[in-house]
Input
Amino acid sequence: MKNFTLITALSLCSFCSECQTVEVQAGGEVTLLCSNFSTSLTQIFWFRVVKGSQPRSISFMYEPLETAKFFEGFTNGKFEMRSNISTVSLKIKQVNSSDSGLYFCGHYLSKNPVIVNATYLEVQEAFDEIAKLVSVTLAGLTVLLVTVIIGLAVKVKKLQKARVEEQNPRRTKNQGSEELNYAAVTFHPKTKRPHRPASENEEETNAIYSATR
Output
């Protein structure tokens, strides 16, 4: 394992300028691919180099289509290694900033490691956090703006109503007086009194006259 680390560390410089870059958002998953393998391979592997640290082996398998074996620190089910003879893949789930780095795949040939492909994985965690913050801020500003617009609309409507009432005070007063007069003047039909005989009318007149005397 020490020989592997020394050899790979010396050969990384030639791959850094040629490796491809893969970007992924934090919390997502990504699959790294490695192709053009020799049909005579005996063991295929993945390892990673993070800035400021030594290369770390991730996984390996002796034959295509078999179950991969993982090294310490990569056995939590987050990594999956698969092969279909011509292509080797490494799937990483729930990525975070600590997963950023250079990923190398290769195989052993005559007991010597041969690096086939290099991929730089860049996890954009900072951008994701900024996007969430911007989204929340915009939502808050939208609610505030809608509230202000509704308040201004209500205030303008009240001012317009007060202005109309101020411009036409006499009309409002006259209209109220007409309504009162109309309510006060009420005509009641005269009820017809039953016809009495002349003698009764005369007696009633005499009675009223006696009372007034």
Observations:
- Residues 125-167 form the longest helix (43 residues).
- Residues 39 and 56 are 26 Å apart (CA to CA).
- Residues 1-10, 205-213 have pLDDT under 50 and may be disordered.
